[in-house]
Amino acid sequence: MEVAGTLDIFNIPLGIDLQKDISVKNNISALFKGLLELNELARSSEVDLKFWALQGLEAFKSRGLSETRPLDRKKEDIM
């Protein structure tokens, strides 16, 4: 979710305890609603999940991430 930019969009700090920090309650609620909407969309006949998978692989590549292990590249860059 960090790499996709979702945490930034919903203004959720990385590493925060989402159950204890009430300052992000509305942000988490908005994200939860968004995930519910995504579930509905993914279940619809309008969506081809295999096509989404191909698009996801392309998104990994465009961000310089490995197709099979997308977070490995980021860890390598840190070291």
Explain what this protein looks like in three dimensions:
There is one protein chain. By secondary structure, the chain is mainly alpha-helical. It has 2 domains: 47 residues, no CATH class; 32 residues, no CATH class. The protein contains 4 helices and no strands. The protein starts with 5 loop residues before the first helix and ends with a helix.
**C-alpha termini separation:** 21 Å
Count of DSSP-assigned helices: 4
Report mean pLDDT, rounded to a whole number.
Answer: 85
Poorly predicted runs are none
Indicate the percent of residues in helices: 55-70%
Task: State the order of secondary-structure elements, H for helix, E for strand.
Answer: HHHH
Integer count of domains: 2
Q: What composes the largest sheet?
A: none
Strand content: under 5%
Rg: 15 Å
Structural category is mainly alpha
Describe the protein's topology.
Blueprint: H1 6-9, H2 25-43, H3 49-62, H4 70-78
